[in-house]
Amino acid sequence: MSDSDHQTLSTVDGNTFVAMCLARAGVDRMFGVVGIPVTSLANRSVGLGIRFIAFHNEQSAGYAASAYGYLTGRPGILLTVSGPGCVHGLAGLSNATVNTWPMVLISGSSDQKEMGRGDFQELDQIEAVKPFSKYSAKATDITKIPSCVFSVLDWAISGKPGGCYLDLPTDVLHQTISDTEAHKLIDDAESCRNKELIAKPIVQHSEIEKAAALLRKAERPLIVFGKGAAFSRAENALKNLVERTGIPFLPTPMAKGLLPDNHELAATAARSLAIGKCDVALIVGARLNWLLHFGEPPKWSKDVKFILVDVDKEEIELRKPCLGLVGDATKVVEMIHKEIKDDPFCLGKSHPWVEALSKKSKENVLKMEAQLAKDVVPFNFMTPMRIIRDAILQLGSPAPIVVSEGANTMDVGRSVLVQTEPRTRLDAGTWGTMGVGLGYCIAAAVASPERLVVAVEGDSGFGFSAMEVETLVRYQLPVVVIVFNNGGVYGGDRRNPEEITGPYKEDPAPTSFVPGASYHLLIEAFGGKGYLVGTPDELKSALTESFSARKPAVINVTIDPYAGAESGRMQHKN
């Protein structure tokens, strides 16, 4: 071996060094779009055992990284190029931060000595990510890479989880150090990791006693849990508390399945009564934001006492509940359960509050089932949603992960589709983000390879990221995308005649798409399976075949364009 060969083998460049640090930190998946200056980083990462899922668009890759963080409890990693790549990645970073999911955006950036001179894709990316990043780090020299990598990963999951950013200048990625020094720097940085960041707050026992006393004395108690409880893996703790006390529960949309939707104490079908009449509400891992009507009248009683469990002290201070418990959802619920177990109480099925909610739930379910029982053709939203629900339930366990986005499609799906297992529903979330569908599908398939992934999408929501069906085929992911095709946003042209005026009145309506679009052919262009369906039998056949095959498929469901309505804030009428 020549001296030059020996030297080449014994040195590592910045790209390899970043990959080594990610691998040491336990990163096993990465999503992104490669190009100058990060292609080599992606290749080196793959060589070190990190699976890289390459997308067409950083926006979809970012949504995938954010959902991966939620599903696994570990930071989802998004890799982008500099400048516009970083900007496109902000969609995923901001989505992660708003939903409080751990994620790290890693972007290449301009050569440091060329900054300010109009370098290729130049942007002050540290400044650009500020509104959406909990913590940002820039590796200004190759020796700084380990501490930067470990710090962004630790910050992403500390306290209230969220998005973090790592900036990798081109010149740093091209610097080299010896292999020996590289390993020493990684060892040193790992030993200095700030473990305090990951420590969870400890709730005082006196506060747990107060929470138990409030629940014990309540006449109409309610337990509400959100996706923060799902992230915390609080399902067993919640099951124990609910079943020991007999207190009815209400999940937020993405928390459906923590306890089965068909549990006898589920109050979802009597939501308005539950939140309108409860006198004490234990809120676990959910924020009193628009999704829960800010915890204010007229939706809630003016006298309701809130017990708010949240990992974020600032969230509790903002909402000013009767009692705030800062801590991890699972640990706090376990502590409340233990306190009640020592002096038990249980409402029982004949308790007036439990009876009232049960009666209302049954009434509302019967009304909805009467609507669902009709086979309406051309399809409305209810008929195909019922067929999809029944097909999913027939699969049993492990239950598929359902990805739901759209206006009417998501609204109807939230009421009709049944979740029986934790973290099996992904939707537009806290921000009401459209365009998350295909990214979430890919994240779910990668995070939970044992589960089928079923997306139920409006045609508008699908259109944001439809090209990623090629990604499904390329990686042969078990994803079935069902598109409710009603010819546009909310259902094509809904304008009144007096609204159709002006010099461009012949243009399609702002809500219109091409009628009868052949979305099923898109996936066939890449070797996937497409179905066009318009009747119950056609849909049942397509679902049976595609669910059994567990291969990438798109089912194009023709919906009556006059079915459905404009959707914005969530409307709950039960």
Task: Please render the helix and strand layout as text.
Elements lengths: L2 H7 L1 E3 H11 L4 E4 L6 H9 L3 E4 L3 H15 L3 E5 L3 H16 L3 E7 L15 H4 L6 E4 L6 H13 L5 E7 H5 L1 E3 H13 L13 H13 L3 E5 L1 H5 L3 H11 L3 E3 L19 H7 L2 E5 L20 E6 L2 H7 L3 E4 L2 H14 L9 H22 L8 H13 L6 E5 L2 H9 L8 E2 L10 H11 L5 E6 H6 L4 H7 L3 E7 L33 H6 L4 E5 L2 H14 L3 E6 L16
Parallel strand pairs: 2-3, 2-4, 4-5, 5-7, 6-7, 9-10, 9-11, 11-12, 12-13, 14-15, 14-16, 16-17, 17-19, 18-19
Antiparallel strand pairs: 1-8
Helix pairs in contact: 2-3, 2-7, 4-5, 4-19, 10-15, 12-15, 17-23
Protein name: 2-hydroxyacyl-CoA lyase
Organism: Solanum tuberosum
Cofactor: thiamine diphosphate
> How many H/I helices?
23
Spatial order of strands in the largest sheet:
3-2-4-5-7-6
The fraction of residues in strands falls at 15-25%
Number of strands: 19
**Poorly predicted parts:** 1-8, 568-574
Overall SS class: alpha/beta
CA(first)-CA(last) distance: 76 Å
Helix content bin: 40-55%
What overall form do the CA principal axes indicate?
A: globular
> What does the average pLDDT come to?
94
Radius of gyration: 25 Å
**Largest sheet: number of strands, sense, barrel closure:** 6 strands, parallel
